[in-house]
Design goal:
Length: 96
C-alpha cells in the first residue's frame, strides 16, 4: 500500500494524553457543557453576543447548509407564488 500522506507529524504530549481519554457522547450533558463553554469562548474572541452556529462539517458542508437554507426560502416563495396563480386560474375556470 502506498499512502500519500504527510508524516510523521510531531504531536505534543498533552495532546496525546487528551486523546487517550474516552470520547464524550454527543448527547450527554458533559458534551452540552463543553459546547456551551466553546460557544461562549468563540463569542468572547469574536466580541459578539449574537447567536453562534457551530457546524461539525467541512467548509463544503457549511456551504451546502447555506445554499440549502437560501434555496429553501426561494422554493417556499415560488410555491406560494405558484399556488396564488393556481387559485386565480381555478377561479377564472369556475367563472367560465
Amino acid at each position: 500500500m502506498n499512502l500519500r500522506i504527510p508524516g510523521p507529524t510531531p504531536c505534543p504530549d498533552d495532546v496525546m494524553e487528551a486523546m487517550s481519554h474516552p470520547m464524550i457522547n454527543h448527547r450527554s450533558s458533559e458534551f452540552k457543557d463543553v459546547m456551551l463553554r466553546v460557544t461562549q469562548g468563540i463569542k468572547d474572541v469574536m466580541k459578539t453576543e449574537a447567536d453562534l452556529l457551530i457546524l461539525s462539517a467541512s467548509g463544503t458542508g457549511g456551504l451546502e447548509a447555506a445554499i440549502v437554507n437560501v434555496l429553501l426560502v426561494l422554493i417556499q416563495l415560488l410555491v406560494y407564488s405558484y399556488c396564488k396563480q393556481l387559485r386565480l386560474i381555478l377561479f377564472v375556470i369556475q367563472l367560465l
